[in-house]
Fold each of these.
Amino acid sequence: MPPVSSYLLRVALCLSLPLTLNAAAICTVTGTGPAFGNYNFLSAAPSVANGQLTVSCTRVGRGRSTVAPVWSASAGNSGTAAARHMLSGVNILNYNLYLDTAYTQIWGDGTGVTRTGGTSMRLRRRNPTQSVTVPIYGRAPALQNPAAGVYGDTIVVTITY
């Protein structure tokens, strides 16, 4: 069996924004993916890690003052957000991303069993910019026995508003 320290798990977030013409607000997103660190394949407890997104919206012109950004996440390597996995070459380690601390709301694009995140912001003349920081909860099931290596996945985060 490989040593526990030979596993390093990372989830990278690639952030994208849709083009919105004649918008009353401009929104941006920044974030960091969960960094699981070393995976202990002997532990009966799942490996957990957190990341975060920050969504900032700024009022532009005299348009509407309420904006409702929604953030979604791609499936990554697995092709399905319902059952994501990280890769190290051809080796697989299962994990997923969640919107809640109970790990019941899988973060994805809103299809199937996945959900998107969202909020509503009221942008006023005196307070034209607002931000919200949202945690990302990552979890890798216990007792997987993958080959030693550095595992990773790339998730594309899209914000629509």
Amino acid sequence: MPKLASYDAVIVGGGPNGLAAAIVLAQSSLSVLLIEARGRVGGGSRTQELTLPGFRHDVCSAIHPMAAASPFFRTLPLDDFGLAWIHPPAALAHPLDDGTAAILATSLEATAEGLGRDGDSYRGLFEPLVREQERLFPELLGPLRWPRSPLLLARFGLLALRSAQSLADAYFQTERARALFAGCAAHAILPFDRAATAAIGLVLMLAGHAHNWPFPRGGSEALARSLAGYFTSLGGEIETE
């Protein structure tokens, strides 16, 4: 183990958050050591051959709706370090009991058309958010600070602070639209009647329209490897095990 006192900063944990923090410090010309307990970095971004040789499986995180939308990740030259995003034909499909599925397509119009009589309501809810997504994502995913677009964030907040149940009741009449929204809002891991659970559904669906829900070619570990590669190119050091 290197002498820790010889570094400006030591990061404990080599998941995407630890790697991102290490990169920010290294970009500021600080000497940074990242320590990871496992044999390789990645944290929840791990990919292994679990069945047959050559068949790689993500064993924790797999789809990364917010990674492609991340204002920070988009500033990094991760493609130079092996990261390639695969964009599926649709972000997600929510199966229904009648054998059909509600589809979240990248196209707002295509998604709305698939929701029948709720199409206009869906379009009215998401069209303003999609139009402002380039300004909205930095506010939602950036550090806590006084907002650069306070009116835009306030308009979003009036929707996001509602419960998922309340928002669905206000905008949607059909099981199809409600199920599509509920499937995303469920990632709040809270009952649908809790305040602010609508925020999770709104942001995940907005990410689908703005950037799709891509996944790294070769598995989620490819994201961690590219972050680690860029970090070490800046002079950072990684100590595993």
Amino acid sequence: MAFRAEEAAERGFVRAKNYLISRDFSPSERAAGEQALADIIEKCGPVVDTYPSWHPLVSKHDDRQPVTTPSRECGYEGLDHTIYFAHGFLTCPYHSAEKVLESTARLPSHPRCSITAEELDVPFYNSGVKPVLVRCEWDELLEGGYLVPKKWAVPLMMEKELPGWRWASVAETWETMRPYILGQPHGNRSSLFVSQDTALAMKKIFVAMTDTGMYGPYIQRQPRLY
């Protein structure tokens, strides 16, 4: 089935709305939350499931154990009840937002973007939480509003994948690595992070790297028995 970005984005919006806008809120609180969610999507892009491992929001991790969602493994503290957007995430911890704000401020600088965090005075998830919006603000406008251009996506991918030649013993296929490189949701040749042209360039370069044998031989997986 072909990947339909608009349908994937709409499914994500419905999921985020159902998760963040509590039925226990008053009508005015629900309206305020829905408007704030729409504003966040306008700034940060569509709701996503996971990030590419090279995305600045998650890239500060151990390259031997890549992660694709914000967590302690990539520098954040205090996250709870979190929804991800293409270039930001909303987290709703109870009691205090300080851990999120402070840990985000400690993240290393990035050559193509800045990562910021701000506490929001908006009713999200539950009346007892302190919502924080963490944003990845790129230095230049993205393609189509939210797609990372090829000139950035390709080198960022290479920076994450190239060091693996030092310790890898087997090579992964593009099909196995596609969620890590394109993020989720994704199709065969695009995602909510990169266009088809960019994804094809990334695939071509990744396959060329693995075909050199730099990571070792391809994994021979056993056929699935039914």
